[in-house]
């Protein structure tokens, strides 16, 4: 039975993102195992871990000289909840990534929308390719919150009205904005994640500066925290060598 307008959920608003590590097969030993087969043949994990300094040195050498394939023999799957516009930037990263996003064709989408908090810089100054973001005024912050909330409510009411009239979900969803939250599973390996982080985060150790949109950077920062715990030697080498993916 179709949901009636009286039962329509009230829109809710968020300014954060969710990143959860769902499963993984990722560790520094995966890098060592893949790299040493070139010169030593098959070795056990016990043999690989006998000399920690040598292991650290090998990983740093691979990172420094950009021998990238040993960093691909691992896997991390993340559950991510973020605004749709974040996912559209995310999916420009294709090599070494797999995605499955919730479908607006097969389920009724929940009214959860993005409104930036007071820490989000609102004003862009400068020309394309050479601009900075600066703090907005309180009036600009209030305007942004009010206008976005009003627009979201209107769009979701139109969506529900069409659903109640029997319009297919895949058609009705067309009125929904990119500030709506979606969710997905994203699977990658360490090499593809390093490439992502090099482009989608700002960091003082980066040799090549990057200027990502803040919302996708928030996702990147949370993914980086998980990865740093799984592969500490690889993570340290990534930072020490300018955060450039091998």
From TrEMBL:
<comment type="pathway">
    <text>Pyrimidine metabolism; dTTP biosynthesis.</text>
</comment>
<feature type="binding site">
    <location>
        <position position="69"/>
    </location>
    <ligand>
        <name>FAD</name>
    </ligand>
</feature>
<dbReference type="InterPro" id="IPR036098">
    <property type="entry name" value="Thymidylate_synthase_ThyX_sf"/>
</dbReference>
<comment type="subunit">
    <text>Homotetramer.</text>
</comment>
<feature type="binding site">
    <location>
        <position position="101"/>
    </location>
    <ligand>
        <name>FAD</name>
    </ligand>
</feature>
<protein>
    <recommendedName>
        <fullName>Flavin-dependent thymidylate synthase</fullName>
        <ecNumber>2.1.1.148</ecNumber>
    </recommendedName>
</protein>
<keyword id="KW-0521">NADP</keyword>
<keyword id="KW-0545">Nucleotide biosynthesis</keyword>
<comment type="function">
    <text>Catalyzes the reductive methylation of 2'-deoxyuridine-5'-monophosphate (dUMP) to 2'-deoxythymidine-5'-monophosphate (dTMP) while utilizing 5,10-methylenetetrahydrofolate (mTHF) as the methyl donor, and NADPH and FADH(2) as the reductant.</text>
</comment>
<feature type="active site" description="Involved in ionization of N3 of dUMP, leading to its activation">
    <location>
        <position position="200"/>
    </location>
</feature>
<keyword id="KW-0285">Flavoprotein</keyword>
<dbReference type="InterPro" id="IPR003669">
    <property type="entry name" value="Thymidylate_synthase_ThyX"/>
</dbReference>
<keyword id="KW-0808">Transferase</keyword>
<feature type="binding site">
    <location>
        <position position="200"/>
    </location>
    <ligand>
        <name>dUMP</name>
    </ligand>
</feature>
<feature type="binding site">
    <location>
        <begin position="189"/>
        <end position="191"/>
    </location>
    <ligand>
        <name>FAD</name>
    </ligand>
</feature>
<keyword id="KW-0274">FAD</keyword>
<dbReference type="GO" id="GO:0050797">
    <property type="term" value="F:thymidylate synthase (FAD) activity"/>
</dbReference>
<dbReference type="GO" id="GO:0032259">
    <property type="term" value="P:methylation"/>
</dbReference>
<dbReference type="Pfam" id="PF02511">
    <property type="entry name" value="Thy1"/>
</dbReference>
<comment type="similarity">
    <text>Belongs to the thymidylate synthase ThyX family.</text>
</comment>
<feature type="binding site">
    <location>
        <begin position="92"/>
        <end position="94"/>
    </location>
    <ligand>
        <name>FAD</name>
    </ligand>
</feature>
<keyword id="KW-0489">Methyltransferase</keyword>
<feature type="binding site" description="in other chain">
    <location>
        <begin position="101"/>
        <end position="105"/>
    </location>
    <ligand>
        <name>dUMP</name>
    </ligand>
</feature>
<feature type="binding site">
    <location>
        <position position="195"/>
    </location>
    <ligand>
        <name>FAD</name>
    </ligand>
</feature>
<feature type="binding site" description="in other chain">
    <location>
        <position position="173"/>
    </location>
    <ligand>
        <name>dUMP</name>
    </ligand>
</feature>
<feature type="binding site">
    <location>
        <begin position="89"/>
        <end position="92"/>
    </location>
    <ligand>
        <name>dUMP</name>
    </ligand>
</feature>
């Amino acid at each position: 039975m179709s949901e009636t307008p009286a039962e329509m959920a009230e829109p809710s608003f968020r300014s954060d993102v969710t990143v959860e590590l769902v499963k993984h097969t990722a560790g520094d030993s995966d890098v060592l195992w893949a790299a040493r087969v070139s010169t030593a043949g098959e070795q056990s994990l016990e043999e690989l871990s006998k000399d920690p300094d040598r292991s650290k040195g090998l990983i740093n050498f691979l990172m420094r000289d950009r021998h990238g394939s040993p960093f691909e023999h691992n896997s991390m799957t993340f559950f991510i909840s973020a605004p749709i516009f974040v996912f559209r930037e995310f999916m420009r990263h294709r090599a070494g990534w797999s995605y499955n996003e919730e479908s607006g064709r097969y389920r009724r989408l929940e009214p959860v929308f993005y409104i930036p908090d007071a820490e989000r810089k609102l004003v862009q100054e400068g020309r394309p390719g050479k601009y900075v973001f600066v703090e907005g005024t309180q009036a600009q912050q209030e305007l942004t919150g009010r206008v976005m909330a009003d627009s979201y409510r209107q769009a979701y009411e139109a969506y529900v009205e069409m659903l109640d009239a029997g319009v297919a979900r895949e058609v009705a969803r067309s009125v929904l904005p990119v500030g709506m939250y979606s969710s997905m599973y994203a699977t990658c390996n360490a090499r593809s994640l390093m490439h992502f982080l090099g482009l989608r985060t700002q960091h003082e150790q980066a040799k090549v500066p990057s200027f990502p949109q803040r919302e996708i950077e928030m996702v990147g920062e949370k993914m980086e925290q998980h990865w740093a715990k799984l592969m500490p030697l690889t993570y340290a080498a990534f930072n020490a060598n300018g955060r450039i993916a091998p």
